[in-house]
């Protein structure tokens, strides 16, 4: 199930990406760059020096044609060879070449360092920002996508930084430098070179557009294949015991063949782009030689210049074709960057106070005034809720799915802020209370019982940030959980697995309750699990819950009859409003929503 | 955790593999298998690559001669005729075109060969998985199996990408050296000094980044793991106020990742200017040597230009070879993992068998155990000496604590897995020998974990079986699913799942039940198949079944109402039949009474 969720997210992410690749053309590379610069101050650090160094590195690449020109024009002439001149220029070039190597090293390392700092900063800031977003932004469907922002999107950028970004910087400077030298040698020949190269740009642009589209289609075919494969693996029992194997086989074969076909279309462009650049480059050389020899004497072109031009043309073709190769990578990287930046632009709705108020270590009372809540996308969840809960009361919140009862519980812990109205805890607005205090004194136990992938005892200890092992053990003791702990394979040190899935749902709840006990909160909010729990654990849970609730104000989102029956106060939610409140004995004969709910509960378990 | 250990394992394996001498041999085998499967594109690609080598050298010869016969006389001498210029122009253009064309051919056919190989291997993996024993799915996670089909195939074939180019590089180096030798032995000597130096440098670089690259790979896994866990459990992170600790955890791993990446960056910053400038150095040496040779008349300017052009071209291919060596260990390790799937023997079932009336299900001393995850020698027993008979038309409830072997029994009955001892017969036919395809005509099981395909409801219901629409609707009716299905935008044609409508847990379960009913089975098995269905609706479904069908029913349930509907209850404990009889009879047994009374309070 977990995996399926993850995979759904992957599938969605692919779609995201497809849309974003379209979007990125509208946004424009420059805008991404502008916003990216703002989000990453590390990028600007020492940027001018780096640029200067890169310029020098690109210049170093021109040493050879420059030397060839000087040697051919001054050292080797029709009147003979002047060995000293040749040696002079060659040795200077060699010396400069060594200097170029040293400078190249410094520049590459500088670029790499900047890139790594930027990426680390971006990753950390995005992660931090995501954690600050309200729980309303963390819907199940977006989980995979958010994780991808911090992982695969940043990795895509890393790969780009290691090759594409450096290629862009060095190559564009190199192209510029080559063109400058060409113009200095002979502006006539430069025009010839540019004229021959001119048709290349529209052709490349056309091909690259198609290449990008083709890659998009490949990506979606890949995701299709993965969906079908994972279906056939996860549904293996159904596939086999319903005689669905042959059909599944043909589905898989189709998916794999479709992916192959789309790959073949995409690779056509890959096969052609580079050779076309190469052919144009050669044509330019031929044109330069032809024109250079024919009109050379009139244009004042020397043989050294012409031969240097041949080598320079080569230095022009190489960066152009390399840029052609990195274009696809660039596009993907920009799209990834944009997605990360969009997360950073999401407004943080739950803002912590600068100097927050404290809460006492005793049971807390709650006053809810004119509380409204609706999601960013609209849809009213809570509508004018008013209630006073005295300290030490145990409250059961009941209602149908979608009645707003869970959201109500979430607002009490400030997982999101109300759209209107306010919640007073101990007479203070929840928004004014210091976050550390809030985390300790108001504690929610969510129903999914998520655990961290470590030992049982560590998970319990996470209940409070400064809790010692002994305190965690004490909490387990308080709740009477030792008998359960002892029958675990490695006792307290038992690893709980990813999300805690080595334990059963009920056992995870037990750990979550112990975790809450460590914090010793004055207000406890429980979201009871809806999924089936085996009866033995169920009984244990009930006892544990009772012990945990002692001496605290508790609000339970109830899915069990007994919870409601035992509560001091029952709040019945319907369509975002509290429609009934009171004790079980008051409500059960009211012939309202509660009595109906109770009937359907009881009718199907105790009497049939 | 899984991503972490996975990537770490890959890294370690790759590391071990690189120390092994057999790596080149294994690489050869991998390449050979691909060539054998798709010889034509490989051969064309490699031939085009060799054509490229010849043309590249040819191009430098043309350039040298154009220098001597067109450029020098044209600009430094007394000028040349227009015809000669035109000749030079076309010589360059033609050779250049052939060069470009050979690159196109090489890329296209090499790629075709790689893509065809990927397809062949993917299909092979899929076919093997579909026919592999069910137990093979237990020891591997879905993610792991997906990786075989996806990333492992990509990684294994990544050494095939530069194959044609690499082979042509070898011929290119040979032809170049010969042509340099022909021009002048001294040029040849310079080349002999330079190219091995380049190759050695490349090798050093690969070695130097091996360790940080491996560590970085593992750290990427670690960072992903932290991000995944932390965002997955965001609710808990927020409620217990662990944001800062989580952030610290990410920062620490990210910093370590940055350090490793910077180690790679440092190496790259040392090697890459060196690799670039070394040939330049060679060219400058050539220029000096060339000048001396021109001076004493043993070489021309054009020949010097030709030699220099050759040097310039030769730098890139050396790097390509380096890339292939770098990829080799990873690829052969991925190939080993693919071979592991290829080596699974498919399960063979008997082709014929008949189910005689009455269709009773008889468990005859059935035992089942599976190897322990940590210690393969130790086997964990799930069922032991389990004997029971479900008569045709009987309805039976299976009751037992978690882990008592109920679900295993369902899997055994469906023929998905075979008992380690004893056997199960279905109207005298042996289920284990005939396998799931045969059983599927008679027994329909609704498994604990509802599985629906991301396609239309119709497809999910029929699963390619030939059934009429009226059958579909009556099955939906019995499963109490007709109401919500008729409210769906396209009825039974509605696409569900990832790219369609999301159904609730209870709705999904009802679809799964309808799917089973549609098979009109002799035996219907419901393994906790109504856990998410509203108790009222559940009762309704069970009543409908009683009325509309006459098949045997085996039901595993946690609700008292459901248990009570069965004619007989089998109480299973620790893999054995503890007692069997009516619910009221069994209530006299304390363990049973305790268990079912605990079911009472559980509602949703």
Give structural notes.
The complex is a heterodimer of chains A (608) and B (604). Chain A contains 22 helices and twelve strands. Chain A has 608 residues and is α/β, with parallel strands linked by helices. Chain A has two domains: 343 residues, ABC transporter type 1, transmembrane domain (ABC transporter transmembrane region fold); 242 residues, Rossmann fold (3-Layer(aba) Sandwich), CATH 3.40.50.300. Chain A has a six-stranded mixed β-sheet, with helices on both faces. Chain A has a four-stranded antiparallel β-sheet with strand order 4-3-6-7, covered by helices on one side. In chain A, helix 3 crosses helix 7. The longest helix of chain A has 55 residues. Chain A is elongated. Chain B is an alpha/beta fold and 604 residues long. Chain B folds into two domains: 341 residues, ABC transporter type 1, transmembrane domain (ABC transporter transmembrane region fold), CATH 1.20.1560; 240 residues, P-loop containing nucleotide triphosphate hydrolases (Rossmann fold, 3-Layer(aba) Sandwich), CATH 3.40.50. Chain B is built from 20 helices and ten strands. In chain B, the strands form two sheets. Chain B has a six-stranded mixed β-sheet, with helices on both faces. A four-stranded antiparallel β-sheet of chain B has the order 2-1-4-5. In chain B, helix 17 links the parallel strand 7 and strand 8. Chain B is elongated and about 120 Å long. The relative contact order of chain B is 0.08. Chains A and B meet through helix 1, helix 4, strand 1, strand 2 and helix 5 of A and helix 3, helix 4, helix 5, helix 7 and helix 8 of B.
């Amino acid at each position: 199930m977990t995996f399926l969720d993850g995979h759904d997210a992957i599938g969605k992410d692919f779609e995201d990406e497809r849309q974003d690749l379209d979007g990125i053309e509208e946004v424009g590379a420059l805008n991404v760059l502008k916003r990216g610069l703002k989000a990453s101050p590390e990028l600007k650090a020492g940027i001018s020096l780096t640029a200067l160094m890169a310029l020098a590195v690109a210049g170093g690449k021109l040493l050879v044609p420059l030397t060839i020109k000087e040697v051919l024009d001054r050292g080797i002439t029709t009147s003979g060879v002047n060995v000293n001149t040749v040696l002079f220029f060659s040795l200077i070039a060699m010396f400069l070449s060594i200097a170029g190597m040293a400078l190249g090293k410094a520049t590459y390392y500088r670029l790499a360092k900047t890139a790594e700092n930027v990426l680390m900063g971006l990753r950390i800031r995005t992660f931090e920002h995501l954690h600050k977003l309200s729980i309303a932004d963390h819907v199940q469907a977006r989980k995979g996508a958010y994780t991808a922002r911090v992982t695969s999107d940043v990795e895509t950028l890393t790969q780009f930084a290691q090759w594409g970004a450096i290629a862009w910087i060095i190559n564009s400077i190199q192209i510029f430098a080559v063109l400058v030298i060409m113009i200095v040698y002979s502006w006539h020949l430069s025009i010839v070179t540019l004229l021959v190269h001119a048709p290349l740009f529209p052709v490349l642009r056309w091909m690259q557009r198609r290449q990008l589209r083709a890659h998009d289609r490949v990506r979606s075919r890949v995701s299709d294949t993965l969906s079908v494969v994972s279906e056939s693996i996860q549904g293996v029992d159904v596939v086999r015991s319903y005689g669905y194997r042959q059909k599944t086989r043909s589905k898989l074969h189709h998916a794999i063949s479709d992916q192959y076909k789309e790959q073949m279309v995409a690779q056509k462009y890959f096969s052609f782009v580079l050779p076309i650049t190469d052919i144009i480059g050669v044509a330019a050389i031929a044109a330069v030689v032809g024109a250079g020899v024919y009109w050379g004497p009139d244009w004042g072109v020397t043989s050294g210049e012409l031969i240097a031009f041949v080598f320079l043309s080569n230095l022009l073709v190489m960066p152009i074709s390399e840029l052609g190769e990195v274009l696809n990578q660039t596009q993907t990287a920009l799209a990834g960057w944009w997605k990360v930046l969009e997360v950073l632009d999401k407004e943080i709705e739950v803002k912590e106070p600068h100097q927050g108020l404290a809460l006492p270590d005793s049971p807390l009372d709650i006053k809810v005034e004119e509380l409204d809540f609706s999601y960013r996308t609209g849809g009213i969840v809570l509508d004018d809720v008013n209630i006073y809960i005295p300290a030490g009361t145990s409250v059961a919140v009941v209602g149908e799915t979608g009645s707003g009862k869970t959201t109500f519980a979430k607002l009490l812990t400030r997982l999101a802020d109300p759209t209107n109205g306010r919640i007073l805890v101990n007479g203070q607005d929840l928004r004014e209370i210091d976050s550390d205090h809030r985390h300790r004194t108001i504690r929610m136990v969510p129903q999914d019982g998520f655990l961290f992938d470590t030992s049982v005892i560590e998970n319990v200890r996470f209940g409070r940030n400064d809790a010692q092992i002994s305190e965690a053990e004490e909490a387990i003791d308080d709740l009477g959980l030792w008998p359960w702990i002892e029958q675990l394979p490695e006792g307290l040190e038992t690893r709980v697995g990813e999300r805690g899935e080595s334990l059963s749902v009920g056992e995870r709840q037990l750990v979550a309750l112990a975790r809450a006990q460590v914090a010793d909160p004055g207000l406890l909010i429980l979201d009871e699990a809806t999924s089936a729990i085996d009866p033995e654990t169920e009984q244990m849970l009930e006892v544990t819950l009772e012990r945990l609730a002692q001496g605290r104000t508790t609000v339970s989102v109830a899915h069990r009859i007994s919870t409601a029956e035992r509560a001091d106060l029952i709040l019945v939610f319907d369509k975002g409003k509290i429609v009934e409140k009171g004790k079980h004995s008051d409500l059960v004969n009211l012939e309202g929503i509660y009595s109906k709910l109770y009937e359907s509960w009881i009718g199907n378990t105790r009497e049939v | 955790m899984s991503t972490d250990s996975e990537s770490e394992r890959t890294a370690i394996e790759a590391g071990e593999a690189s120390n092994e001498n057999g790596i080149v041999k294994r690489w050869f085998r991998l390449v050979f298998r691909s060539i054998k499967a798709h010889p034509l594109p490989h051969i064309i690609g490699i031939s085009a690559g060799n054509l490229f080598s010849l043309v590249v050298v040819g191009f430098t010869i043309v350039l040298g001669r154009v220098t001597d016969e067109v450029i020098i006389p044209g600009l430094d001498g007394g000028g040349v005729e227009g015809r000669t210029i035109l000749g030079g122009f076309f010589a360059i253009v033609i050779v250049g075109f052939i060069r470009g064309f050979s690159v196109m051919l090489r890329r296209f056919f090499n790629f075709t060969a790689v893509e065809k190989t990927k397809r062949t291997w993917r299909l092979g993996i899929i076919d093997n998985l579909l026919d592999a024993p069910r137990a093979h799915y237990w020891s591997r996670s879905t993610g792991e199996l997906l990786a075989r089909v996806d990333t492992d195939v990509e990684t294994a074939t990544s050494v095939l990408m530069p194959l044609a180019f690499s082979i042509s590089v070898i011929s290119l180096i040979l032809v170049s050296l010969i042509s340099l030798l022909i021009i002048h032995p001294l040029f040849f000597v310079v080349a002999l000094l330079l190219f091995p130096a380049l190759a050695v440098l490349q090798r050093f670089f690969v070695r130097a980044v091996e360790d940080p690259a491996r560590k970085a790979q593992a750290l990427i896994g670690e960072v992903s793991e932290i991000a995944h866990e932390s965002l997955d459990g965001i609710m808990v992170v927020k409620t217990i106020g662990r944001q800062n600790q989580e952030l610290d955890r990410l920062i620490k791993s990210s910093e370590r990742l940055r350090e490793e990446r910077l180690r790679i960056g440092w190496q790259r910053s040392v090697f890459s200017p060196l690799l670039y400038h070394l040939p330049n150095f060679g060219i400058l040496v050539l220029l000096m040597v060339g000048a001396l040779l021109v001076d004493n008349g043993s070489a021309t300017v054009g020949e010097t230009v030709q030699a220099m052009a050759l040097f310039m071209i030769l730098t890139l291919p050396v790097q390509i070879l380096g890339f292939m060596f770098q990829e080799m260990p990873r690829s052969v390790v991925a190939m080993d993992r693919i071979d592991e799937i290829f080596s699974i023997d498919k399960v063979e079932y008997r082709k014929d068998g008949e189910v005689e009336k009455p269709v009773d299900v008889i468990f005859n001393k059935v035992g089942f155990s599976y190897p322990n995850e940590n210690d393969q020698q130790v086997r964990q027993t799930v069922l032991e000496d389990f004997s029971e008979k479900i008569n045709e038309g009987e309805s039976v409830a299976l009751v037992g604590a978690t882990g008592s072997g109920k679900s295993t029994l369902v899997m055994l009955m469906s023929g998905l897995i075979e008992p380690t001892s004893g056997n199960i017969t279905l109207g005298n036919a042996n289920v284990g020998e005939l396998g799931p395809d045969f059983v599927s005509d008679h027994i329909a099981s609704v498994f604990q974990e509802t599985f629906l395909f991301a396609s239309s409801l119709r497809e999910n219901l029929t699963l390619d079986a030939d059934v009429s629409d009226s059958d579909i609707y009556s099955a939906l009716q019995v499963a109490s699913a007709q109401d919500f299905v008729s409210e769906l935008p396209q009825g039974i044609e509605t696409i569900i799942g990832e790219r369609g409508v999301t159904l609730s847990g209870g709705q999904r379960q009802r679809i799964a039940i309808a799917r089973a009913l549609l098979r009109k089975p002799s035996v219907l098995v419901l393994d906790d198949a109504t856990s998410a269905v509203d108790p009222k609706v559940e009762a309704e479904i069970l009543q409908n079944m009683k009325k509309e069908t006459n098949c045997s029913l085996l039901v595993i349930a946690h609700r008292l109402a459901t248990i009570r509907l069965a004619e007989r209850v089998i109480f299973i404990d620790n893999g054995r039949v503890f007692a069997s009889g009516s619910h009221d009879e069994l209530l006299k047994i304390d363990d049973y009474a305790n268990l079912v009374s605990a079911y009472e309070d559980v509602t949703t």
